[in-house]
Design goal:
The protein has about 425 residues and is of the alpha+beta class. It has two domains: about 325 residues, no CATH class; about 80 residues, 2-Layer Sandwich (Alpha-Beta Plaits). Helices cover about 65% and strands about 5% of the residues. It has a five-stranded antiparallel β-sheet with strand order 1-3-4-2-5. Helix 1 crosses helix 16 and helix 7 crosses helix 13. The longest helix has about 35 residues. About 5% of the residues have low confidence.
Length: about 425
């Protein structure tokens, strides 16, 4: 048990200064590059639109669920499938917070190659869609455009500084706190339970471990930042850096729930191209990264850990742990309304498939657009959606939720 706690604390102190700085940068970024501004500027088709979508997406700290309403809004604003796919591929793989954490735990080379992988996959995916999926669907996505309430990036009363601090140290930690803590615990368990070199003996080298990491990463819901300590622990136990990179690319970019929604937003052919591109680029990037480390005869490691005094690392770790624990503590979600003070009926739905706050925001925004709905409250942790209004149509509400890729059943109409 002591080994587990030691590994947990080491991972926390190693990443804390960089993640806190990443939170700050993400807060500043929220003022200049919000999802709303992305929607406004990324309409159109062709290579330039794909390039802009990829470059916009790389620094944004959105997970594979949070990127979905923005992508749906891009389609509603007449963005081509290529640009939408490029944004969908590049955004969840990285963000300023995950780049800083990667630098802090795995070194400069890994921190450079990771966003480059997102850049290449975004460009190739977008151009592949433009070349091979020329049929532009006339149907609009069922998902609503990303709003200020769902993205949490609008400047609120109190000035820009409070907006930066609120987004960087409140909103963003709420999105990643639970997967971040899970990742730290997983890293500690790996360090505690798995002997040195065991994974290398088990998986070997070359293509095999990369394929295994890809098969683990694609269906899993993995946060771009939270996956870094897991990758560092896997490397320490014998997984090659390239195989770890495959996991870091495929895990955040895909998971089962998101893929069902991507299918509805982009269609079957584009979804298959999307999967093929992320799988191919991740394997190639992992192979290249392994070759570089072999040529250098090194392994990923923090290169500047000695420059930060131990007391500062420890203090940053305590602050980060407090932020994550507060953000992970269950909170009652805020209800969305359309100005109604009194409602005549309430319908409670059980929703399956939600994996983060953005899923709940997406469903809540959609419910509020339906006829008769005056208020909606969606809690992703309990899978519960409360809808209030007049002349509610349960079948319509369920169908709208299912169009987003989730399952919904009535629980207790009153």
């Amino acid at each position: 048990m002591a080994d587990f706690l030691t590994a947990f604390w080491q991972s926390l102190t190693m990443m804390a200064p960089y993640l806190l700085f990443g939170f700050l940068v993400a807060g500043v970024l929220a003022i200049f590059i919000s999802p709303q501004s992305v929607e406004r500027h990324l309409g159109g088709r062709g290579f330039l639109a794909v390039l802009k979508a990829t470059l916009f997406g790389i620094p944004l700290p959105l997970c594979s669920c949070g990127v979905l309403p923005v992508t749906a809004a891009l389609r509603r604003h007449k963005a081509g499938k290529g640009a939408a796919t490029a944004f969908l591929l590049s955004t969840p793989q990285t963000g300023f917070d995950s780049i800083f954490v990667t630098f802090g735990m795995l070194g400069t080379l890994f921190a450079v190659v990771r966003p480059l992988g997102a850049l290449v996959s975004g460009l190739l995916g977008g151009m592949a869609i433009n070349l091979f999926d020329t049929e532009e669907n006339a149907r609009d996505s069922a998902a609503p455009p990303c709003t200020e309430d769902c993205c949490g990036t609008s400047e609120r009363p109190g000035g820009w500084l409070l907006t930066v601090l609120r987004h960087g140290f409140v909103t963003l930690p709420r999105d990643i706190a639970r997967p971040m803590l899970t990742g730290l615990i997983a890293a500690g368990l790996i360090a505690w339970l798995i002997p040195e070199g065991y994974l290398y003996d088990l998986l070997g080298a070359g293509l095999r471990p990369k394929l295994i990491m890809m098969l683990i990463g694609i269906p899993s819901y993995v946060c771009a930042t939270a996956s870094v300590p897991v990758a560092a622990a896997l490397i320490a136990k014998g997984v090659s850096p390239g195989a770890a990179l495959v996991f870091l690319m495929t895990g955040p970019a895909t998971h089962i729930t998101a893929l069902t929604t991507v299918w509805k937003i982009l269609g079957r052919r584009s979804t298959l191209i999307y999967l093929g591109v992320i799988a191919t680029v991740s394997i190639l990037a992992g192979t290249l990264l392994d070759a570089i480390y072999i040529a250098r005869a090194t392994l990923p490691a923090p290169e500047m850990a000695h420059l930060i005094p131990a007391p500062i690392n420890a203090g940053a770790a305590i602050i980060l742990l407090a932020i994550l624990l507060k953000a992970a503590w269950p909170q009652r979600p805020r209800a969305g309304t359309r100005g109604a003070e009194r409602t005549a009926a309430k319908l409670i739905l059980r929703v399956r498939g939600m994996s983060c706050r953005h899923c709940a925001d997406l469903i809540q925004g959609t419910l509020l657009q339906q006829p008769g709905v005056e208020a909606a409250l969606v809690d992703w942790t309990s899978g519960r959606a409360e809808v209030s209004g007049k002349d509610l149509d349960p079948d319509l509400l369920r169908s709208r939720i299912k169009e987003l890729g989730y399952d919904a059943e009535p629980a207790a109409p009153v």
